[in-house]
Amino acid sequence: MSQQDSIELRLTGNGISPGTIRSKDIAQLIDAVEDMIASKVVAENPSIRKDQIVIGLSNIEEGSVGLLFASSVDELTSSAAKAIASSITAEDFYSLPEDSIRSLKTISAFTRSRDCHAEIYDVNDSKKLLAVITPTTKILEYEPIRGETSIYGTVTRVGGSNEEKPTIQFRTIEGHLLYCSASKRNAKIAAQHLYQKIGLIGVAEWDAKTFSIKSFDVKEISDYEQGSLSEALQSVSDSYGQQFDAVEDVDDFVQKIRHSV
User: Fold this and answer.
1) Within-domain flag for 127
2) pTM, entire model
3) 197 and 158 in a common domain
4) Which of 74, 99, 133 is the C-terminal boundary of a domain?
5) Contact 91, 27 (CB under 8 A)
6) Domain check: are 118 and 51 in the same one?
7) Is residue 34 part of a domain?
8) How confident is the model at residue 180 (pLDDT cuts 50, 70, 90)?
9) What's the rounded Cα separation, in Å, for the pair 67 and 235?
10) Which runs of consecutive H residues, i.e. helices, occur in 115-260?
């Protein structure tokens, strides 16, 4: 692929030249750029596997250190690089996948350790500066949400290599497969309910973007009792119904909640 369809990472600063940077540091930066962009491409195109995307080093330019990357899917990688650059400029990384953020942190750590700048360019006929990572750039991650909750589903496996903190493989009633940490006692109880539906009570960690459960630490195990929808609604009504008895206009009440500051 020609240089006209490339992404460039250029390192600039005092003492930055090919002969002053260790090969393993260059290799780490090359890997970070490839993973950063490929992860964003996959996030935006779920039908593409990460191993199908090749973002290879095509050239090293003289003058400071310029690393040129050519891609097997240049339109997608160019779009991903621009989206990442926009996040850097706006200092808003909410739209980026975790792997892209982790790779950005690798590049950012290098700029701090060498007191240099990492400039990201789009090279397509002309060369355009997209963003600059400096020693003061902060790559922020969104902290996961943690809290106590209950989940229900089927125990599919119990065990693991850590005898002090066994793992309960658990498929929720929504069909999601989770690997939950547990005490020996709770693991033994779960093992007695293999391929049966139970409830797990514990501390969950949710992804702040997708609200999917990332991890679950089991504190208690409860029986699973399947009820009807009408029973569930009646239970809610019995518990909270009196708090809404004074609401006369339901539509107006909901609108005020939605638009309240």
Assistant:
1) yes
2) 0.61
3) yes
4) 133
5) no
6) yes
7) yes
8) very high
9) 62
10) 184-191, 229-240, 250-259
- Alpha-carbon distance of 31 to 55, in angstroms, equals 9
Q: What is the DSSP string of 77-125?
A: HHHHHHHHHHHHHHT--TTS-HHHHHHHHHHHHHHHHHT-EEEEEEEES
186, burial (CB in 10 Å: exposed 0-12, middle 13-18, buried 19+): buried
Predicted confidence at residue 2, as pLDDT, reads: 43
Q: Is the pLDDT confidence value at 246 over 90?
A: no
Mean pLDDT of 51-63: 78
The stretches of the chain forming alpha helices (DSSP H) are 23-44, 74-90, 98-114, 184-191, 229-240, 250-259
Is residue 121 within 8 Å of 129, Cβ to Cβ? yes
> Which residue type, as a one-letter code, is found at position 67?
L
Q: Are residues 112 and 152 in the same domain?
A: no
Report the CATH number at residue 159.
2.40.50.140
| Average confidence (pLDDT) over 121-142 | 89
- Check residues 236 and 70 and name the one with the higher pLDDT: 70
Number of structural domains found in the chain: 2
**Could you give the CA distance from residue 202 to residue 16 in angstroms, rounded to a whole number?**
51
Q: What are the pLDDT digits (tens) for 46-55?
A: 888 888 888 8
Last residue of a domain, one of 76, 98, 133: 133
Q: 5: pLDDT confidence band, cut at 50, 70 and 90?
A: low
Sign of CA dihedral 172, 178, 179, 183: negative
Q: What domain range is 205 assigned to? A: 145-227
Question: Both tokens of residue 251?
Answer: 């539509």
Alpha-carbon distance of 124 to 38, in angstroms, equals 19
pLDDT at 17: 72
Which pLDDT value is given to residue 1? 39
